From TrEMBL:
The name this protein goes by in its record: Target of rapamycin complex subunit LST8
Classification lineage: Eukaryota, Viridiplantae, Streptophyta, Embryophyta, Tracheophyta
GO BP terms, alphabetized: regulation of actin cytoskeleton organization; TOR signaling
WD repeats: 12-35, 80-121, 128-155, 213-247, 255-296
InterPro entries reported in the protein's UniProt record: MLST8, WD40/YVTN_repeat-like_dom_sf, WD40_PAC1, WD40_repeat_CS, WD40_repeat_dom_sf, WD40_rpt
Length: 312
């Protein structure tokens, strides 16, 4: 596994669970080498910061930043306090100076990591389930519980575009192609809506409908475009992850093995592997070429709800 990675650049996996623990694993061996627990730690999303070695956890209702290279990696080096309900999404601008977040309190917030405070706030009215940053680094795209997709222009400080593919059907996940030319939204009815961005990297204010994909017959909990712009992965409450070829949106593979809902997934940097997290308490590593399970990470005692691959 990960045979194309040099030995001096190890790959790690971070997972979080309803058992209130975050665990760090050696991706190659499946060994859990560190874990930490907080009685009040309810993690909804994990993300690696652009500055390697730091992990951010979107919790209820705060955001916590951990330095995995410190002597006490289990102690947050920063706590970001402003949201009042579950934080469902978190991510970073490529410089690492700006962090964004979305919450069930109906807000999308912008944070300056150098001053620790919330700098700006956009109101979505209904609970926000997902937020992604456009590759142009100047626009955020959010999806909410009422089925709204909104584009927030960070330069103009306003909502520049709104899409409602299915009124009242929650948007659960969003993903954007690395060059900004494609946006995919997944909802609670198992449907993926795909748009082409007409102006590519310059703006996201215009969308051209490209495809409607009935990927599953139940909730899609995560959708994710692969780094090589070849595949779309959809993780579902039907216990499967499906891999779709973007050339015609044909079903390429169905990853089966999880016994309960699959909440999250993350591609390796080369797109050769996919890691998944499930209510069956496990995380699993899959070979994209073979479409088979390569490793099971098992130590959590309750649902594993989020995962992310880390490079040292």
């Amino acid at each position: 596994m990960f045979e194309n990675k040099p030995d001096d650049s190890p790959v790690y996996l971070a997972t979080a669970s309803h058992d209130q623990t975050i665990r760090l694993w050696q991706a190659r061996t499946g060994r859990c080498y560190f874990s930490f627990r907080y009685p009040d730690l309810h993690v909804n999303r994990l993300e690696l910061t652009p500055e390697k070695g730091k992990l951010v956890a979107a919790c209820n209702p705060h955001i916590r930043l951990f330095d995995l290279r410190s002597y006490n990696p289990h102690i947050p080096v920063r706590n970001f306090v402003s949201h009042t309900k579950n934080v469902m999404a978190v991510g970073f601008q490529y410089t690492g100076h700006m962090m964004y977040s979305g919450s069930e309190d109906g807000s999308v917030k912008i944070w300056d990591l150098r001053v620790r405070e919330c700098q700006r706030e956009f109101r979505s009215v209904s609970p926000v389930n997902t937020v992604v940053l456009h590759p142009n680094q100047t626009e955020l795209i959010s999806g909410d519980q009422n089925g709204n997709i909104r584009v927030w222009d960070l330069r103009a400080d306003l909502c520049s575009c709104e899409l409602v593919p299915e009124v009242g059907t929650p948007i659960r996940s969003l993903t954007v192609m690395w060059d900004g030319t494609m946006v995919v939204a997944a909802n609670d009815r198992g449907t993926c809506y795909v748009w082409r961005s007409l102006c590519e990297r310059q703006t996201m204010t215009e969308f051209e409908p490209l495809h409607k994909l009935q990927a599953h017959n139940s909730h899609i909990l995560k959708c994710l475009l692969s780094p090589g712009n070849k595949y779309l992965a959809t993780a579902s409450s039907d216990k499967t992850v499906k891999i779709w070829n973007l050339d015609g949106f044909k079903l390429e593979k169905v990853l089966t093995g999880h016994e309960r809902w699959v909440w999250d997934c993350d591609f390796s940097m080369d797109g050769e592997y996919l890691v998944t997290a499930s209510s069956d308490t496990t995380a699993r590593l899959w070979s994209m070429r073979a479409g088979k399970e390569e490793m099971v990470y098992q130590a959590h005692r309750k649902a594993t709800v989020c995962c992310t691959l880390l490079r040292d």
